[in-house]
Amino acid sequence: MNDEQSELRVGHRFWRFPGGLKLRHWKKISIGEALAFAGVPERLVLALKQNVGEAPEPAVEIGQPVARGERLTRLGSGFSAHLHAPCSAVVEDIGRYPVPHPSGLEADCIVLRHDHEERSVTMPHLVDWWRHDASELLERVIEAGVVGLGGALFPTHLKLEPRRGLPMRMLLVNGAECEPYISCDEILMRMYPQELLIGTQIMAQILGVEAAFIAIEDQMGAVEQILRQAAVEIEADEVEIVKVPTIYPEGGERQLIQVLTGLEVPSGGIPPDLGIVCHNVATALAVYRAVLKGEPVISRIVTVSGRGVEIQRNLEALIGTPIRHLVALAGGYNERARRLVVGGPMMGYALAHDDLPVTKGTNCILALIDKDVDRPVPELPCIRCGECARVCPARLLPQQLLWHIQAGEFEQAREHALNDCIECGCCAYACPSQIPLLDYYRHGKGELRARDAEAAAAARAKARFEDRQARLAADEAAREARLQARHEALAQGDKAAQIEAAVARARAARVRDPEEV
Amino acid sequence: MTGLLLLVSLAALCGLGLGFAARRYRAEGDPVVDRIDALLPQTQCAQCGYPGCRPYAEAIARGAADINRCPPGGDAVIKSLAELLGSEARPLDPGLGEHKPKAVALIREAECIGCALCLKACPVDAIVGAAHKMHTVIAAECTGCELCLPPCPVDCIDLVTLPSTLTTWRWPPPAPRPGELGPARPR
Predict the structure, then answer these.
(1) Is there a contact between A464 and B41 if contact means CB atoms under 8 Å apart?
(2) pTM of the entire structure?
(3) In this predicted complex, what is the ipTM?
(4) N or C terminus of chain A with fewer C-beta within 10 Å?
(5) On the CB side of A144, how many CA atoms lie within 13 Å of its CA?
(6) Which chain A residue shows the shortest CA-CA distance from B185?
């Protein structure tokens, strides 16, 4: 069977990815509550960099009033994405504020104060989107600041742009949210099925692909029916709904592609190498809103869950809303709450406090309790049981990587494909010795990134040094040549005439600029 | 007789082939120097006593210089040089300076008199300015070599370490928790 046929048969048969875990998914506890709007807080903090690549530059000034949906940034030269005002507000400050990040560091932010007015702008939109070509649609996506809302934050327009020499064959919209507790994608599919389907159609049109799939998990119950119903209503028959078995980390795009097509994204490669583009369902909805409604990304759905809050629920929150505000809407912490985590329990990271803003990538806020956090036994030496290798979906050798990283041998870890680690955390979960394997790999990957940056800087310094040496040598040679020529002229010609000429030159110069001589 | 002829002609053929290959695929430059140069940090600071990283690499390759003369590289570079050359790693020569964390030059622009002396000193052209005009350092290109400090007549150049930002931050290694054995390294 060649690749072409296997793609057409998506959904009729499933492949397996290696490893993975069956986890208790804890999703039902938050899906029962209806989706609610979290309201407009008094103060919103928008981190400038909410995308992979470079931060955009602020295009507003302190004290400037802005309308809901107004663009706040301009793009630089690199990869970047716009930010917009989530409500009618006044720019209170542009400066460094704490943002949700494992480092706990501050980052450049635009702070807005809600002014309780209703100023609002919408961008130009294309109601008859099917009549417009890819570049016009992409323009809307760029203007709306759409990034990968599954959490990756990669600027969406870059994934939708045509790639030279690589025809795209398939669009995969990822609704297979596999981390325990998180149900923001599921509730989005329940609430906005038609919008999601239209967003998918728009993306398929931009990419010029025939086949578009929305992948959901088999534990999502009624979602399949809702989507199929919506597809019939809006006659979106080119979009197919496929249900995949629930195995963690199936929501990873590489794993999902493998399950659906049997194809493996090559090491160091990306899905477009296979002609496949994968987007999150929330991104598809954002594309719909950008193109048909002229609405930028100013809010997202956040799951607030865990046994440490009173009411586990999903909230539609404006970007920049304090996490504290969302926790309050979830009934606040109960006495069991012990650790606040952003992201899922497998891949998320702990926060030091809750006075941090929601970003475009904040899909879940978890208040975990003692039972979730405590390890049943302390960290013990590796017994080489091999469980970690068995569950690794990227087929790496976790023990080997651990030893190299502990010994500081990062280059060897690179040779063992450390950079292919998707940081799913299956290895650490499975480890009977409670070794925090994922923490080691994140450390190792950070070291490799730092080394690469140093090597690039050294190469640049070397090139600049060599260029400078060459320039100095050329200057010196030119000076020599000039001197030589003058000597020769002096030796050959009439000395008196030349002295006369030099004196005349000097006099002329003095007349022109008496200061300089 | 045929055997002998065959052997001689085979030997001649091999000789011709090798001779051709040696000329055709002759290595450009000195590969050892290139490999040593690749390990050096390219700060071009001349603290080793040579006018740049490449000349130091050439001196090491000649056997004229020791491998412990690079303060910006520190022990890591000495270790990798020792590995490459199969020699013994030894501590950094203390007479040449000490290994410091990476820093970049920063001109206190209000005090700069525009003398242009630091422009000439910078080995990587990372300072922009003109006579009687304020100068500034391109931080991304500065190697922190400190060569611009001595020529400055008004001492308006500082070396500053850059603060950790979200892009330069890296995950620390997991801290061993108190009272627990760290995992043994079975190697």
Answers:
(1) no
(2) 0.84
(3) 0.80
(4) N
(5) 33
(6) A403
